[in-house]
Amino acid sequence: ASISRTIGRPVPGDVAQAEVKSCGQTDDGGDTCSISRGNPDLQPRRATNLDLTLTQGFNGNKGLVGISGFAKWIADDIYTLTNLTTIDEVPYKIRQPLNASGSRVVGVEALVENNGMAFAGQTFDLFANFTWMKGHMDVSTDTGSRSIGRMLYQPAVLANAGVTWHTPFLHSAFTARYNYRGKYLESI
């Protein structure tokens, strides 16, 4: 079990990015303009983390099975917002990184690993893990505060599995792996 506090600085480009303005014509003859800029007032992410893991060895300690639970409460999580505003009677899309009011994620991970398994005179290692997560963000948009039932770039499901075939007669080993990442939110 562990409890920790962590800090994550913003990407330097999110803080010190020069303002870039571009304008052009839309298909209907109107103007479309955009501004992309950094945010010098961006605060670092600060998280309180709680983790609990239970594991058990088997197969002469060549195998391991485990389950973990975790929770993170994040202050000032960073997201990028595109909002609409009018400057000199021209509509602009303004894209800028901001701090969220609050974020949190909880999840469970299960794993199993077994090394040195003999089958048909060959030696194999097997592993698999599965992670389920549920996130939440409170953000401010151009229309007010908004609560989102997931976090940016955080899928609800991650899974990995693999097998390694040890081939001493070739002085090598072959590994096949499969990784799955569920759908995730890319923008607000």
Please mark out the parts with pLDDT under 50 across 5 or more consecutive residues, or reply none.
Answer: none
Structural class: mainly beta
Secondary structure tally, helices: 1
Radius of gyration: 24 Å
Overall mean pLDDT stands at: 89
* SSE series: EHEEEEEEEEEEE
- Count of strand segments: 12
Outline type: elongated
Q: Hey, roughly how much beta strand do the residues contain?
A: over 45%
Question: CA-to-CA gap between the ends?
Answer: 34 Å
Helix share, percent: under 10%
Major sheet: 8 strands, antiparallel
How would you explain this protein's 3D organization?
This protein is 3% helix and 69% strand. By secondary structure, the protein is mainly β. The strands form two sheets. Strands 1, 4, 5, 8, 9, 10, 11 and 12 form an eight-stranded antiparallel sheet that branches. A four-stranded mixed sheet has the order 2-3-7-6, with no helix packed on it. It is elongated. It starts with a strand and ends in a 7-residue tail after the last strand. The mean pLDDT is 89.
